[in-house]
From TrEMBL:
Its EC number is 2.1.1.197. HAMAP family: BioC (MF_00835). This is Malonyl-[acyl-carrier protein] O-methyltransferase. The keyword S-adenosyl-L-methionine applies. It is an enzyme of class 2 (transferase). Residues 264-293 are annotated as: Disordered. GO terms for molecular function: carboxyl-O-methyltransferase activity; malonyl-CoA methyltransferase activity; S-adenosylmethionine-dependent methyltransferase activity. GO terms for biological process: biotin biosynthetic process; methylation. The gene is bioC. Converts the free carboxyl group of a malonyl-thioester to its methyl ester by transfer of a methyl group from S-adenosyl-L-methionine (SAM). It allows to synthesize pimeloyl-ACP via the fatty acid synthetic pathway. Keywords: Biotin biosynthesis, Methyltransferase, S-adenosyl-L-methionine, Transferase. InterPro entries: BioC (IPR011814), Malonyl-ACP_OMT (IPR050602), Methyltransf_11 (IPR013216), SAM-dependent_MTases_sf (IPR029063). Residues 51-147 form the Methyltransferase type domain.
Length: 293
């Protein structure tokens, strides 16, 4: 598993600054959203509460409300600016709630969520045990977790261009599908199913990609990044290395997208513990019995 650490304050600030212009750059996010909606076909019940974690500007939340008109849909995001923009998608006919909170500390009661949906948010969280543990906490038994995230091949061209210049960290690193699957099982999630798709977007020049990343708030947030300003010559050498990768006159950028779903465990289902072994938990009420004298 990767040893990188995400600077969560930097992530929150990046997305906060990007909120007003985000939807000018979110074509990939909308495409991946359709993959998640297809996975929801496996959920055969009528949900009472659906949450959209890392909701951003609320496009996905609005689609969830359209699909589940009778459910309470809650858009959750750590960036308050994003939630302010999301208000524009919460129409008066099919409104959804907006709630500021972190994916690893959701401000919701235990076992209160039927569907937990998250589109391209989980890659900004490096504490997978905490993340999926929180998903298990809020999901009802048999509730559905459906999410997408980026895999390690994402932005491989940009990473290679920087690697030709120096060995510092310039591009975010993302976890492999197998690491995600192991973390889901360890947390106690049932029957996880994960798939990988690769998208190649093309640009007129490398700077166009960099502008898009900034517009999405998806700029580098690894704590190990270089804190100083990158010199102009250094930057130009990276651009020249990326220019050499042109295909049919366009600059390619690969995005490896992992989509997944799993189910909330039944009460008392065991989960793997750190260091080996398994832990099972039960409510106090379920342990009460008749005491003989």
């Amino acid at each position: 598993m990767s040893d990188f650490q995400v600077d969560t304050r930097r992530v929150r600030a990046n997305f906060g600054h990007a909120a007003t212009g985000y939807e000018q750059h979110d074509a990939l996010q909308r495409e991946v959203q359709q993959l998640l909606l297809e996975r929801l076909d496996f959920y055969l019940q009528q949900p009472e509460r659906v949450i959209d974690v890392g909701a951003g500007t609320g496009r996905g939340s609005a689609l969830l409300k359209k699909r589940y008109a009778k459910a309470q849909v809650i858009a959750v995001d750590a960036a308050l600016s994003m939630l302010r923009v999301a208000k524009s998608h919460a129409g008066w006919l099919k409104p959804f709630m907006r709630l500021c909170g972190d994916a690893t500390a959701l401000p919701l009661p235990d076992h209160s969520v039927d569907i937990l949906h998250s589109n391209l948010c989980f890659q900004w969280i490096d504490d997978l045990a905490g993340l999926f543990g929180e998903c298990v906490r809020v999901l009802k038994p048999g509730g559905m977790l459906v999410f997408s995230t980026f895999g390690p091949d994402t932005l491989r061209e940009l990473r290679a261009a920087w690697a030709s210049v120096d060995q510092h960290s310039h591009v975010g690193r993302f976890l492999d599908m197998h690491d995600l699957g192991d973390a889901m099982i360890n947390a106690g999630l049932r029957d996880p199913v994960l798939d990988v798709d690769r998208f190649t977007l093309t640009y007129s020049e490398p700077k166009a990609l960099l502008r898009e990343l900034k517009g999405l708030g998806a700029t580098h947030a690894d704590r190990g990044r270089e804190r100083g300003l990158t010199g102009k010559q250094h930057f130009q050498r990276m651009l020249a290395a990326y220019e050499a990768m042109r295909v049919d006159g366009r600059i390619p950028a690969t995005w490896e997208v992992v989509t997944a779903h799993a189910w909330g465990p039944a009460p008392g289902q065991s989960r793997r513990a750190k260091g080996g072994g398994e832990i099972a938990s039960f409510s106090v009420d379920s342990l009460r019995g008749t005491r003989r004298r």
